[in-house]
Amino acid sequence: MFSLKKGQQKIVNLLFFLTFMFTFSVLAADETLAVIEEVNKDELWDQKAKEVDNWTDRMNLKVDKNIKDTVIVLNLLNIPTVQSCEGHLKWGLPYPWIEIETDTPQVLELIQQAQGIESQIEEEERLLKEQFPLLNWNKILMNKEAEKLRGFYQQRLEIFDEVDRIKHERLATLYDLLNKFYQNGSPYYDHTLILAYNRLESLGGMWQNLRTDKEKKEKLKAYQNELQDFTEFLIDYYYKN
User: Fold this and answer.
1) What is the pTM of this model?
2) Domain end: 119, 137, 164, which one?
3) C-alpha 98: how far from its chain's center?
């Protein structure tokens, strides 16, 4: 049977002790960092909450209480919001919605360029109609003299394509989070949250005008509950990532 000499055993014991202490130190350090990170995220949450408390809309109304946490966590996840509403039966829309900011400075600059091209298009169209008063518009566009106008059309199309790309890029994070939230499907299709262009809203919200007052009230509550579930998912994601 193999046995260690007394000196060798001491060395083995020392190595075992040092390995244990190193592992313990690493685990302790990781745990400490996790606690610090959580504290920092709590501080960021409190700061953003105070900021949101001061936000008002064009009617000088504050962010609705039941959608406030959703607004806070979206902004903390770098998904900036513009407007929101928890949903109301007597005014506004009878379902919750949040509008995401997609008009970045780059988008606004591109829109300005498109407006300048639009002016050139209008002028070129006017000149061509004067030049060919007896031709229908499709034939005018096929004419060689319309080459400049066709170029303007192409420029405008490319600008709007780029605007759409930037806006979709802005919404990509929220889109991915919705996919994660619904990865196992939604038990109620009507309650599903969707991105309608740049607005997060309930899929069935558009059908509220076909329902009785009682049905509207029940559906509004269901839509609000679905958004609350998504909010809890987002908060969990915020603290874990």
Assistant:
1) 0.77
2) 164
3) 9
